[in-house]
Amino acid sequence: MLRRPTSITTLRAPFITRFAPSPNGDLHLGHALSAITGFELAARENGRFLLRIEDIDIQRTREEHVAHIVEDLRWLGLTWEEPVLRQSTRFDAYRKAFQSLLDRGLLYPCFATRSEVDAAVAIDPIGTDPDGAPLYPGLCKHLTPAEIERRRANGEPFCLRLDMDRALTVAHETSGGAPLTFREWNAEPGTPPAIVAADPARWGDAIIVRKDTPASYHLAVVIDDAMQGITHVVRGRDLYAATGLHRLLQVLLSLPEPVYHHHRLLLDAEGRKLSKTLRHTSLRAMRAAGATPAAIRTTLRNARI
C-alpha cells in the first residue's frame, strides 16, 4: 500500500512565541511593534502565538492595565491561545528554581540597601552593566553563615544575587567546556540563526530574586518560556544584552534553548526608546483620538530604525 507523502508543513519544526507585557501602564507603539511582529511571524511560520502577563511586581500591577492590554491587542486584530498565563500564579515554580541555585551555592543573600550600594560605588566604582547601572560592588558577597542567619533573624529584607564567577564555572563544566552562546535569527524566511557569543559577566552579580517577590524578571522569563515551550523569543533590541544572562540561567537550570529575534526599537524625536516611564502616548489615547489599527500599522512600517 502506498503511503501519502509527508507534507513540508508537517516536517517543519514547531514555532511558538509570545508577547509578555507588564501591567504597570498602558501599551504604546513600541509594544504594538513587538506584539505585531511576534503575531505575524507565528502566522507566517504556521506557529502559535501566546499572551503572557508578567505581573510579578504586585505593588505596581493594576487590573485595569491588564484589561487595557487585552483591549488594545484585540483592537489591533491580534488573537492568542487561552488561557493567558499570569506570572503571579507561578511563584512556587520560581521558588523551586531559585532554591536549586541556592542549594548549589550559586546565589547569596544581599541585605544592602540601594543607598548603601550607591555610597560604595561612589567611593570605588567598578563599571556599569549593559543598562548603564553601576555594577554591584560585592558588599554582602562574603558574609559568614552566622552573620547571614543573624540578619535574617532580625527581619532584614534581602535579595538573592547570582555569584557570577561561580555560575560561569559551573556552566562551563556543565557544557563540557563549550562556549556559552545564543542563536539570533534575523526573521528572514529560510535563514538559519546566527551563533552569537553570550557574555553574562557584563551583568556582574545580578539580582535573581528580588526583596519583594520570589523572582526577578530574568529568572521568571526563562522559567516561563521553558514551561510554555517557547521556541522563538521575539522582543526588542533593548533586551539583546540580557540574553547572555538568560542563557546562563538556562544552562544552570537545564532549560531548553530558544531561538531569539530582537527587533528594532521605536525612538522618539530625541532618540529615546518609547517607554511608559517617559509617558509616551499610549495606544489607548491614540485610539480615543481616532487612530485606526491600519493607521497604527502604517506608522510602525514608516517609523525610523
Structural features, described:
This protein folds into two domains: 11-89 and 266-305, 3-Layer(aba) Sandwich (Rossmann fold); 91-219, Glutamyl-tRNA Synthetase, Domain 3 (Glutamyl-tRNA Synthetase, domain 3), CATH 3.90.800. The chain has eleven helices and ten strands. The chain has helices spanning 8-11, 29-44, 63-75, 91-103, 114-123, 145-153, 164-174, 217-227, 242-252, 283-288, 293-302; strands spanning 16-19, 48-53, 85-86, 107-110, 159-162, 181-184, 194-197, 207-209, 232-236, 259-263. The strands form three sheets. A four-stranded mixed sheet has the order 7-6-10-9. It has a three-stranded parallel sheet with strand order 1-2-3. α9 (242-252) links the parallel β9 and β10 (259-263). α8 (217-227) packs across α9. The chain starts with 7 loop residues before the first helix and ends with a helix. The model is unreliable at 1-11 (pLDDT under 50).
User: Which strand order spans the largest sheet, edge to edge or round the barrel?
Assistant: 7-6-10-9
Mean pLDDT: 92
Spans of at least 5 consecutive residues with low confidence = 1-11
CATH architecture of the largest domain: Alpha-Beta Complex
